[in-house]
Task: structure prediction
Amino acid sequence: MFKIKTLYLIILLPFLFVALIFLLSIKAKIDKSMSGLARLTLGATAKGQGIKILQPNYIGEKITYDVKLGKLYLGKAQFNNLANVQLDGRFLSVMTMETKLARFTDMEKIYSDLDTLLPVRVERDILNLFVRERITEDYDQDNFTVTIIKNKGAGQEKLVIKKDSHIHNAVLLPYYVRRIPRLDVGRIIIANLPTRRLEIKLVSIEDIKVPAGTFKAYHFKSTPKQIEIWISTDERRIPLKIQGTGLFGYSMVMSEYTFTPNT
Result:
């Protein structure tokens, strides 16, 4: 009897193995389809529309970062979430990022759509040693274009960039990613910057230590390699660390966080 059962098992094993391979192939196709769906959903390019994001009240938020090159301290950067304003008949969100390094300052004022956080206008004032440069970026999200005007001394340059979908702003990326409704490991977020397209993937949830303390964080990496972002997993979803991955990879690590609600 034992020999008969063993014989049956030997005969069945190849069929079970084939069935297992078949099931695994089906699962792989389903996973691929779901991954493609995630890309399609987050990279939607319907004219006049953007991804609907979470709408917590961040007005009054101030985040201070230490700017470093490796372990070398370079200076400070401060992000401010200001009160909404009206510009050209639209109510817009306003945020600033001011970076102060040795002999270099950069102030960016960013106006963005309230519902999607897509940029509408950016005003940038740069002082490098004794040379001042003023840059404006006007985004037409209906036609997927951004018009960039640079004023340096008596000279002016104008550049119009046309893309195939809505255009994001590099400074806003961490603050856009934090508002995506569902953040599961493996999630991919499409960021269409003026000069390149990034896939930002949530690769892990981990502990991270920054000058302001230790936090549990969502860890994102971009493809191609350009940026890494760590965002706290609590309800505030605070951008804790922003790491450039280029040749001169800088980092911004949170040293102070304050929130004074706009009442």
In short: The mean pLDDT is 84. The radius of gyration is 24 Å. The longest strand covers residues 72-87.
